[in-house]
Amino acid sequence: MKSKRRFPQKGIAEGKIMARILKAKREDNDFTDGTVFGSMCTSPLEIAKKVHSMFLESNLGNPGLYMGTIELEREVHEAVASLINAPEGYEALSVGGATEGNILALWRARNECGKNKVILPKSAHFSFKKACDLLGMESVEIPLDKDHLPDLYIMEDKIDDDTAVVVGIAGTTELGLVEPIEEIAKIAGDIHLHVDAAFGGFTIPFLKQYETLPRFDFNISGVDSLVLDPHKMGLSTIPLGLYYSIDEHPISVEAPYLTGKHQKTITGTRMSASIPAFWSVIKYIGFEGYSSIVESCMKNTRVLLDLGKSIGLDPIVEPVLNIVSFHHQDPDSVVKKMAKKGWNISQTVNPRGLRFVIMPHVTEGSIYKMVPALEDCI
Ligand SMILES: Cc1ncc(COP(=O)(O)O)c(C=O)c1O
Fold first, then answer.
1. Percentage of the chain surpassing pLDDT 70?
2. Angle 364-377/331-340 helices, nearest 10 degrees?
């Protein structure tokens, strides 16, 4: 039997299309009602949405056609470089997110030294699994200690002559911890050190207690590359990650029929509207705006921490960033029960627990509404 054709044969009226589109949009979660506690993304600022929609055709895969966008990109790279203390001669690439940035970092490290091993704390994001698989690299997992930080003795022991790259994380996905990058740098020595600051990169620099937190950026000698995500705590539109390296990224593929003549990112044609969008956010709210948003997230994090304790939950760690995770033996069932009640929460695997990311769309009011439902579900 011939399969039913799904591709439309004739066009239909815009009204009908929009009715279906609006239905789909209503079925999507959005961040406005404060029910999403399981996402590291948030509603971008209005100015970012407005600017993003003006640059839908921009494609920095073919940069010569978009001289305006490329100038804004240069300014974004410079502004963020100063936030993370990138040294003179650094190179920045706008990528689709930290997954792409992490792949680039491992790719570079492998090609430069011809070695194959990736020293990876157990806390590392699953994007590194993709990277290792794609690049044919071997990941060497470093267990965590009682504080859920990489065991540095084991790390030192595992580094050997085949090691291409060591990874440290500033803002772990499950617990929001900042790993001791300075100590990791000492252990790594001359080996490429890559910092995954996808989440922490736009949180840590704005915290009041910044000075007392472990340093994580290019201030530390030995850090070779770093990724951070404007589409997470950078409050901009999806997709945007930033990859920085201390010097020129050597992997470059010729693109002779395009204006740029070579490409360094994994993607070719790439959505670039999020770059002007992010430019507008950093100009609009500045360092002070970010600081007050981050502080408000931290205040709400403490509200959830206390309320969670009051219903008998035990935090896995005292939060450092705006993520609270509580021990739980059966997080899967709680996540499902909460979803039935209209709440999106997430879970940790290592150790098992319930995970809440307190992004700017999560208000104190939404926490107070969510906790009674949580109490019913645990
Ligand atoms: C620490 C960390 N690294 C990398 C990623 C991957 O980021 P993306 O999904 O933007 O590629 C995440 C996503 O949550 C993350 O938390």
1. 99
2. 120
